[in-house]
Specification:
194 residues, mainly alpha, Rna Polymerase Sigma Factor, Chain: A, Arc Repressor Mutant, subunit A, 2 domains, 8 helices
Length: 194
């Protein structure tokens, strides 16, 4: 019957439709990924307007680069890398991180937040609000390593810093995040008397 065509596309159909510039594919891509990409952009942006700009720019780059997708790996992963790169390019003009003081160890675990129970009373939204309060350099490295699963080597290449600077920024971010969460928890308990 006419008008009862399925509205969802497989990944292959979506990619082929995008490569042909089909409006249905463009709409499907936007409807499927707009919320995810905007949320990702919010983690890097300084404002909701900047996040919207980053997300819009990321969609444009995906459309422009769709012919470069080589079907090696996940399409969503490929797009997420474009979103992250777009955000980093948007904030690239600033010096985000500074080199750490000398450290002899290369251990990724120094400075880790060890008491995970401090997070137990917070909703994911509250934790994200705490992450938003991190200084920009800390927040960017934290997002890349913890939320986007980049290695310190990849972060170093993306941000043009050393791997030890990436580790240091992550350690500082985790310690600052712990302090923000502890403070948020104590304010909550004072307000509720719990």
């Amino acid at each position: 019957m006419i008008g009862n065509r399925p509205t969802t596309l497989t990944t292959d159909q979506l990619i082929k439709g995008l490569q042909r510039g089909k409006r249905k594919a463009l709409n499907h891509l936007y409807d499927t990924y707009a919320s995810l990409f905007y949320t990702m952009c919010l983690r890097y942006a300084r404002s909701t307007q900047e996040a919207e700009d980053f997300a819009q720019e990321a969609f444009l780059r995906i459309f422009e680069k769709i012919d470069q997708f080589d079907n090696k790996g996940s399409f969503e992963g490929w797009m997420k890398r474009i979103v992250v790169t777009t955000c980093l390019n948007g904030i690239r003009g600033k010096q985000l991180v500074s080199e750490p003081l000398h450290r002899d160890d290369d251990d990724d675990s120094y400075g880790m937040v060890e008491d995970a129970s401090i997070f137990s009373d917070l909703a994911a939204e509250d934790i994200l609000k705490c992450i938003e309060q991190l200084p920009e350099g800390y927040r960017v490295v934290f997002n890349l390593v913890v939320l986007e699963s980049y290695s310190h080597k990849e972060v170093a290449e993306l941000l043009n810093i050393s791997e030890s600077a990436s580790r240091s920024q992550l350690s500082k971010a985790k310690n600052k995040l712990k302090a923000l969460v502890v403070n948020r928890n104590s304010v909550f308990y004072e307000q509720t008397g719990s």
